Amino acid sequence: MLKGKIAKLAVSDVRFPTSLEQHGSDAMHANPDYSAAYVVIETDDGLKGYGITFTVGRGTEIENEDGRGEKGHSEPPRSGMKRGHKKEMLKEGYPAYTTSCAWLGYSDQQLTQLCSTALTEGWTKFKVKVGADLQDDIRRCSLIRKMIGPENSLMIDANQRWDVAEAISYVTKLAEFRPLWIEEPTCPDDILGHAAISKALAPLGIGVATGEQCHNRVMFKQFLQASALQFVQIDSCRVGSVNENLAIMLMAAKFRVPVCPHAGGVGLCELVQHLILFDYISVSASLENRMCEYVDHLHEHFKSPTVIRNAHYMPPKDPGFSSEMFDESVQKHQFPHGEVWRSILEKNGS
Amino acid sequence: MLKGKIAKLAVSDVRFPTSLEQHGSDAMHANPDYSAAYVVIETDDGLKGYGITFTVGRGTEIENEDGRGEKGHSEPPRSGMKRGHKKEMLKEGYPAYTTSCAWLGYSDQQLTQLCSTALTEGWTKFKVKVGADLQDDIRRCSLIRKMIGPENSLMIDANQRWDVAEAISYVTKLAEFRPLWIEEPTCPDDILGHAAISKALAPLGIGVATGEQCHNRVMFKQFLQASALQFVQIDSCRVGSVNENLAIMLMAAKFRVPVCPHAGGVGLCELVQHLILFDYISVSASLENRMCEYVDHLHEHFKSPTVIRNAHYMPPKDPGFSSEMFDESVQKHQFPHGEVWRSILEKNGS
To answer: Where does the record place the region Disordered (chains A, B) (predicted)?
Structure first.
């Protein structure tokens, strides 16, 4: 048990100017600056705790969660299985997919080059941002599918761009590229809309993935009850932290729907790898249709950055939630008075 | 068209210490201080605009709404009908119900006295807060039903206190008091849960009412699609202002579900009366099962306070949205440096 009292609490508004190079661009966010509300708590006996919430530059988001219960159960694998799965993870890691190749703002030349590099690095699962322009998306998906071949996986992500009927019609036109899922086809609150889309796309072999904008377990409960998603995309920062995510993982197991976490924003890969390893070792015990998102940027600001080997997340070996940033990174990227932002804002004459 | 430019914008954190007398207490909020984020915009040619968002003392809430479309339609009544309805409203007003008699923290003696006064003032529809303790609620509902007689309306409000099965079982035990609706029986995000509750309570003649915590039209769309509510409780401040509420009223009309607005918080009665009059005159053209909440406090701080006559909202005659507060009220109730709060905080030794 901890004995110290909280003696200090510091909050920093840390922002990275990712929009300058279109990293992170999608159908809803043309110019996102990946950012974090970063909290450091210190106790009077010298311990420190680090917490992070991802934003796209519009400030701190705090999720208030009431503490009421929700039902959910799973059949945990026997401890022998657990040990086997732990060993497997330590050796091979948890399968990842990459979103770094095909942000919406990238040129075809960039796509081709990034995809080619990723293939040589061993990546087999690729996500493509879609939803701004159909002809553009057909060209981009065709390009990627040709490069990765018929065996590798392709997923598409519309970032909530469409209405329900529009989503069905649009995705049907991309079915020839055999996407495993369409992610965030419409408003993330529209459970019944997602159910209609799921039903319409099932005959095409395309699942619906969503969850990164789901604000609590009650929303996930309904998505599962209504068969409105086929891939549960938990996020380490959106809901009320670890406990709320555990409830969601247990419900997903009950409904036999795979958990494929959202990641990519500042610190999200670092955090969510802990949750998905727990899911595999202690809850789902399966890798079927399961993978965790990976985006290859901003990891250098963390003291225990994610380690990717052969397109797999290797289990973190340092203690903690991998959430501690380097002091220097925090200082430099403070908004608006850190060195990086002073220089950008001066250039823009503001 | 407005010609001036915005020259000044002032935001005040205005709080009223309502918790001192248990006004506003319910099953989820034992000690709410009714508060408002109050915004005044001034243009360089001297115009002023006043905006308000209700909170329970935990600060400003700002709803960011994207601008995407949702479908909905209604058949507007003919203009002759409209004129008739306008006249009717000017003469008789819009029916209201009172929540002022039965806050959860009031004693039985207080209930009896307030209810008795309300009856002599012409009130016929009464809401009772429930959900903390069943025996307590049975006693309170029995008391109120006896006082108001069999013809008047009684509604109950649990402020999200229960799980789904718990709500059904609890309300079934209050059915003998013939509540017209149970309000917020469970988590306000749980559309499918509300559908299950609606289905279970329909044979008892009890409807489900919700909406004050619904954050956008997409949530209302699903509540309506799933037959998850029988009374649509729009709120003037929760969603993206007037336009979003119009979309919700039009959807309610399409599904033939009555709109019975939430009100009571600082300024909510002042604002929502405009919306419900529009609903009657231009959308629903019906008063069947329709009424608007009223709470009798804090109106004295507004320049154009609501006028209640014989338990009806009388149409406001001043121009505008009735949202302007007296400067003196704003000054005195600024948190934490206004006169009222300085004195309370000093007493509490903080």
So the answer is: 61-85
Q: Which residues of chain B lie closer than 8 angstroms to A226, CB-CB?
A: 192
Residues of A in contact with B244 (CB under 8 A): none
* CATH 3.30.390.10 segments of chain A: 6-62+326-347
Residue type, A26: D
Say if residues A159 and A129 touch (Cβ distance below 8 Å): yes
Residues B168-206 pLDDT 10s: 999 999 999 999 999 999 999 999 999 999 999 999 999
Asked whether the beta carbons of A157 and A26 are under 8 A apart, the reply is yes
Helical (H) or strand (E) element with B145: helix B134-148
Range(s) of chain A covered by CATH 3.20.20.120:
79-314
Residue B196 sits at the chain A interface (C-beta within 8 Å): no
- Is any Cβ of chain B less than 8 angstroms from the Cβ of A213? no
Best residue in B187, B223, B225, B238 for a mutation probing chain A (most A CBs within 10 Å): B187
Q: A327 CB near a chain B CB, below 8 Å?
A: no
Check whether A78 has a pLDDT greater than 60: no
Contact B30/A at CB under 8 A? no
A89 close to A95: Cβ distance less than 8 angstroms: no
* Chain A interface mutation, best of B191, B223, B251, highest count of A Cβ atoms under 10 Å: B191
* A235 and chain B in contact, CB less than 8 A: no
A positions 253-272 inside 8 Å of B (CB): none
**Does the pLDDT value for residue B2 go beyond 70?**
no
The CATH number given to A79-314 is 3.20.20.120
Q: Cα(B142)–Cα(B7) distance, rounded to whole angstroms? A: 56
**Amino acid B31: pLDDT:** 77
For residue B186, give the nearest of B177, B178, B195 by alpha carbon.
B195
DSSP state letter for B176 = G
Distance CA B114, CA B105 (A): 13
A163 contacts B68? CB cut-off 8 A: yes
SS3 A302: strand
Does the distance separating the beta carbons of A216 and B189 come in below 8 Å?
yes
Return the number of other C-beta atoms located less than 10 Å from residue A339's C-beta: 12
pLDDT band with cut points at 50, 70 and 90 for residue B72: very low
The pLDDT of residue B69 is 37
Question: Which of A129, A194, A274, A333 is labelled catalytic?
Answer: A129
pLDDT band at B81; cut points 50, 70, 90:
confident
Q: Which fold, B6-61+327-347?
A: Enolase-like; domain 1 (3.30.390)
CB contact under 8 A, A219 and B68: no
Q: Give the phi and the psi of residue A102 in degrees, each rounded to 5.
A: -140, 55
Distances (CA, A) of A330 to A300, A339, A341: 12, 10, 12
The three-state secondary structure class of B271 is helix
Which residues from A are below 8 Å from B193, CB to CB? 218, 222
Decide if A248 touches B, using CB distance below 8 A: no
Letter for the amino acid at A95?
P
Other Cβ atoms closer than 10 A to A80: 8
Chain A hits for B219, CB-CB cut-off 8 Å, are: 189
CA distance B211 to B213: 5
> Is the C-alpha dihedral spanning B213, B218, B222, B225 positive or negative?
positive
What fold does the segment set A6-62+326-347 form as a domain?
Enolase-like; domain 1 (3.30.390)
Q: Where in chain B is the domain with CATH 3.30.390.10?
A: 6-61+327-347
Q: What are phi and psi of A50, to 5 degrees?
A: -125, 130
